[in-house]
Write a structure and sequence with these properties.
It is elongated, with a radius of gyration of 20 Å. The chain has helices at residues 4-11, 27-37, 52-62, 78-88, 102-111, 124-137, 181-189, 210-218, 271-282, 299-307, 325-331, 341-353; strands at residues 18-23, 43-49, 66-69, 93-97, 115-118, 171-176, 199-203, 224-227, 238-241, 246-250, 256-260, 286-290, 311-315, 337-339. A seven-stranded parallel sheet has the order 8-9-7-6-12-13-14, sandwiched between helices. A five-stranded parallel sheet has the order 2-1-3-4-5, with helices on both faces. The chain is of the alpha/beta class and 354 residues long. It has twelve helices and 14 strands. A hairpin with a 5-residue loop joins strand 10 and strand 11 (256-260).
């Protein structure tokens, strides 16, 4: 139940209190998370749980706005708990884990968690990033999932059309913000092994987690997937994933350039930088894709591809966990095709077959 103070706040049209349940078997970790969150007066920690089973019970009783979830716990781990929660009492879940558990954490994302962050330290920057993420994700309207499946759809069977063996001179560029990793895996799983152009991806991601994401996506893809390196020459059939610590863009020689982040950069890596460079280098040979997620990063870049004569695709609202970045791109009129996530991969393959 909400307190009188929270209800009064709502009547006065001020921002609603964000009610958080912290789940972690470590008392020290719970205390660290709590101390970070309580730096913001709009956040209230309404409970703590030491394992997944206890979390399920407390979610049912306390009705939190968001849950911070550890992965490795006794009795019931975080992945099992997330799958159960999203099938019964769906609530926004932020996985809070260590870099060592990054691969496992993305499995949690496939079960319904919205995003992940490293366990916070006592630094002010860490606390601010953590608070911002909790407040943003608490606003997401999640829906109940069928047990063992995502709310969107099962990934399609890999497509293996004939004739896609030569370099077409084209490129596929994908912008994927918070909430996008599962959508990425759905697309990559539907691309055939002999793919005739490079694929470049920016996924908003915390520092230190890109290798875990790359490993997890590799399991879903027929293509070779690599974390991008400065100076790499783009090759057909290779998927290049931008590191989080640097922005990625393409140079005139179709080589990758990694650019250091500026202190004020809100999004990392930048979707706009990558997509805009793809428009400059590939022009009307570009295929830009913008996926489910928060923020407006990517709208300017996808517009640049559209103006250069490239084809632009946005994930539709019905299959979006967060209809945000893709919604903005659609509203500004820069999208050629709006498709459910299951159909984006097959549409890309169709376009390359023309």
């Amino acid at each position: 139940m909400r307190t009188r103070t929270e209800k009064t706040c709502m009547r006065k049209s001020c921002k609603e209190i964000v009610r958080v349940l912290i789940v972690d078997d470590s008392a020290l970790a719970r205390a660290m998370v709590k101390s970070n969150l309580l730096m913001d007066k709009q956040i209230k920690v309404i409970g703590e749980a030491t394992n997944g089973r206890e979390a399920i019970e407390k979610i049912r009783d306390l009705k939190p706005d968001i849950v911070t979830m550890d992965i490795e716990m006794p009795v019931m781990n975080g992945i099992e708990a997330i799958e159960h929660i999203m099938a019964t009492d769906a609530v926004p879940i932020l996985v809070v884990t260590t870099h060592d558990d990054a691969h496992t954490a993305y499995t949690a994302v496939s079960k319904g968690a919205l995003d992940l962050l490293p366990k916070p330290d006592m630094s002010l920057d860490s606390a601010h990033e953590f608070i911002k993420k909790v407040k943003l994700l608490s606003q997401v309207k999640v829906i109940t999932h069928i047990r063992g499946k995502r709310a969107v759809q099962k990934p399609p069977e890999p497509l293996r059309p004939l004739g896609l063996v030569k370099d077409t001179g084209r490129i596929i560029a994908i912008a994927s913000p918070t909430g996008g990793p599962h959508a990425l895996s759905t697309i990559l799983s539907s691309l055939p092994e002999k793919f005739p152009c490079p694929v470049v991806i920016t996924q908003h991601i915390p520092d230190g987690f890109v290798k875990g994401l790359a490993d997890w996506l590799s399991n879903a893809s027929n293509l070779h997937l690599t974390v991008a390196e400065h100076g790499q020459l783009l090759e057909p059939g290779i998927v290049y994933l931008s590191p989080s610590e640097q922005h990625m863009e393409l140079g005139s020689a179709k080589r990758i350039s990694l650019i250091e982040r500026a202190p004020g950069d809100i999004y990392h890596p930048s979707c706009d930088l990558l997509l805009s460079s793809v428009a400059r280098v590939y022009g009307n040979k570009s295929v830009g894709v913008i996926l489910t997620g928060m923020g407006n990063d990517g709208a300017a870049g996808i517009t640049a591809i559209h103006k250069a004569g490239g084809i632009t695709i946005a994930q539709n609202e019905a299959t979006s966990v967060i209809f945000g970045m893709n919604r903005i791109a659609i509203e500004v009129g820069s999208i050629s095709r709006v498709l459910p996530i299951r159909d984006i991969g097959s549409e890309v393959v169709r376009l390359l077959s023309i």
